[in-house]
């Protein structure tokens, strides 16, 4: 089916900056993708490897648009899936995308959780803004129209445009598509995520407990995570950047919660205590808005529109499963598109996308629920040991295991 063409809306996990112009990336127009996000780009690479044509749309101004590098992403159980869908030359270079590209990962690595009061281990653990989408009268194509008046038609449109996905809202309507805040008046949480640098000796100290990540919990309802975010020079610790993901029960109407965070430091042991106390008083630690959305069964217009990544299942980051499910989405969607495009015996597009959607709802829906539960349990001291982080670790669910088996 040489005329089969995929439209991908969204090349990033984060929303574009306010008033950003619009642009387009196409498969036959080589660009630098390095500043973009995960799901749309990964799907583009997988389609390219499978010789399926695509056009990729993103709201950022250009491939050089700056976006703060604040989050680290964990691959976990989806490593074999990533290896399957990436072109071989990119797979051989995947270590370059590590926060510390010089670190040699062991075959198995546990996320350790510590008691923040004693230090004791608690377990070993781009310029196109979409405005509308419409199917053709014969139902064989779908057209995406953008704010600049341009429109593009493809065989299928994949919304990979993040937590507040425009595609999801156009497909389902505002009421069904809106993401829910993780912090509510009934259960308030303060979420912060910052990228900071330290003096060389301080940076070395902060990597003594573990070279890649560690976190602690506090009985009063706090979670404190430290990990290297960027290691441009392994021999110069002063160049290293760290991610501080720190959260606690409580409300705040202040933009900068550094003073409140420093109060927490007095309640913690090292290295978390020093990681906070060493922050300059000029540092601004902003609160973050974190949201989730339960994937639901939906009309996909005869297989012409679907969702992937955070557009399909935004989840809170307390189990670090977002990237793995993004990779699983692309793996699953690619397999279904290949089943549709098989010579002579291809399955109807509606059938394969129905199957893909159902698989995503089952697999990722479970993880959205589990991650939300993990957040609640990890910041409720008496429930900590009942948390999925202790009971399930970062293992995939049963539905994800089926994808791994096929890979």
Structural account:
The protein is α/β, with parallel strands linked by helices and 407 residues long. The chain is built from twelve helices and 16 strands. The protein has helices at residues 39-49, 79-85, 88-91, 166-172, 174-177, 200-206, 258-265, 272-277, 322-340, 349-378, 388-391, 398-406, and strands spanning 5-9, 23-26, 53-58, 112-115, 121-124, 130-135, 142-146, 151-154, 156-159, 180-181, 189-197, 214-218, 222-230, 241-249, 291-292, 305-307. The strands form four sheets. Strands 5-4-12-13-14-11 form a six-stranded mixed β-sheet, with no helix packed on it. The longest helix is centred in the last third of the chain and has 30 residues, at 349-378. The chain is globular, with a radius of gyration of 22 Å. The relative contact order is 0.16. Residues 13-36 have low confidence and may be disordered.
In short:
With 407 residues, the chain is α/β, with parallel strands linked by helices.
Per-chain topology:
Elements: E1 5-9, E2 23-26, H1 39-49, E3 53-58, H2 79-85, H3 88-91, E4 112-115, E5 121-124, E6 130-135, E7 142-146, E8 151-154, E9 156-159, H4 166-172, H5 174-177, E10 180-181, E11 189-197, H6 200-206, E12 214-218, E13 222-230, E14 241-249, H7 258-265, H8 272-277, E15 291-292, E16 305-307, H9 322-340, H10 349-378, H11 388-391, H12 398-406
Parallel strand pairs: 1-3, 1-9, 4-12, 9-16
Antiparallel strand pairs: 2-3, 4-5, 6-7, 7-8, 10-15, 11-14, 12-13, 13-14
Helix pairs in contact: 1-9, 2-9, 9-10
């Amino acid at each position: 089916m040489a005329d089969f063409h995929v439209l991908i809306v969204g090349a990033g996990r984060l929303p574009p900056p306010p008033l950003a112009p619009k642009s387009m990336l196409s498969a036959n127009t080589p660009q630098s993708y390095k500043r973009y996000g995960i799901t749309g780009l990964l799907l583009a690479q997988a389609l390219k490897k499978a010789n399926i044509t695509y056009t990729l749309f993103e709201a950022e101004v250009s491939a050089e648009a700056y976006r703060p590098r604040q989050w680290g992403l964990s691959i976990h159980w989806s490593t074999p899936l990533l290896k399957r869908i990436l072109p071989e030359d990119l797979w051989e270079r995947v270590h370059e995308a590590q926060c510390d590209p010089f670190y040699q990962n062991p075959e198995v690595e546990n996320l350790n959780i510590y008691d923040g009061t004693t230090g004791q281990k608690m377990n070993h653990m781009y310029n196109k803004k979409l405005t509308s989408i419409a199917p053709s009268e014969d139902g064989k194509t779908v057209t995406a129209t953008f704010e600049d008046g341009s429109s593009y038609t493809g065989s299928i449109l994949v919304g990979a445009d993040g937590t507040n996905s425009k595609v999801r809202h156009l497909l389902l309507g505002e009421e069904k598509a809106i993401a829910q805040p993780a912090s509510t008046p009934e259960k308030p949480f303060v979420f912060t995520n910052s990228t900071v640098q330290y003096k060389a000796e301080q940076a070395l100290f902060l990597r003594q407990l573990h070279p890649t990540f560690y976190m602690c919990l506090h009985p009063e309802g706090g979670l404190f995570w430290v990990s290297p975010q960027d290691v441009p020079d392994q021999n110069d610790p002063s160049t290293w950047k760290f991610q501080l993901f720190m959260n606690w029960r409580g409300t705040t109407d202040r933009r900068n919660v550094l003073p409140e965070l420093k109060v927490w430091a007095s309640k913690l042991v090292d290295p978390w205590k020093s990681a906070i106390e060493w922050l300059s008083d000029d540092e601004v630690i902003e609160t973050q808005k974190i949201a989730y959305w339960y994937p639901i069964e939906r009309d996909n217009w005869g297989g012409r529109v679907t969702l992937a990544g955070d557009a399909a299942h935004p989840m809170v980051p307390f189990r670090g499963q977002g990237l793995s499910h993004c990779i699983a989405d692309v793996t699953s969607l690619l397999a279904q598109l290949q089943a549709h495009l098989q010579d002579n015996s291809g399955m109807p597009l509606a059938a394969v996308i129905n199957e893909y959607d159902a698989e995503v709802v089952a697999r990722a829906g479970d993880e959205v629920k589990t991650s939300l539960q993990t957040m609640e349990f990890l910041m409720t001291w008496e429930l900590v040991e009942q948390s999925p982080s202790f009971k399930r670790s970062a293992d995939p669910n049963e539905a994800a295991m089926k994808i791994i088996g096929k890979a």
